[in-house]
Amino acid sequence: KGIVMKFGWMMICCGVSLVVAACGGTNASDSLPPPPLSGQITLTTTTTEGGVVSPRSLQVTSGQAANFTINADVGFDIGSITGCGGALQGTNYHVAVVQESCNVHVQFRQKRYSLAVKSMGAGQVSPATTSVAHGSVGRINVTPAAEHDVIQVVSSSGGSYQQGVFVETVS
After folding, report:
1. Is the pTM of this model over 0.70?
2. Is pLDDT at 84 greater than 50 in this prediction?
3. 155, 162 in Cβ contact below 8 A?
């Protein structure tokens, strides 16, 4: 009876192994960090649009330091970084002593610029100042007073005046 039970148990284990091995599915594990080695702690990263963090995940031994490089894309800068008790030094996020698995979250923000037009004479500009996101077009309406004309629009940064509107692409 003992041999039959062992054989029956082995058959069940083999059958389960074959079923699990035969299940295909997606390769979702390709995007996940590798499982930690024994005694290793895993630090992962997440970001918003506008930049990258490298490495995306890191494994260290408890008590060691960890470093991540933060690079904002053109038109973005680092808005905030949270997680793992680290500190930003330039473009390096340094975690002095890793105690447990954790996640570093970096939020990038799109740069914004102030666009202003000043009226010198009779007339109005609306709005006088506006905030424009990097790579976007800012528009300010220029309206001369009755019986007046716009004689000249001077831009220190390459904007142009067209049909009553000052237009500038900021970058």
Report:
1. no
2. yes
3. no
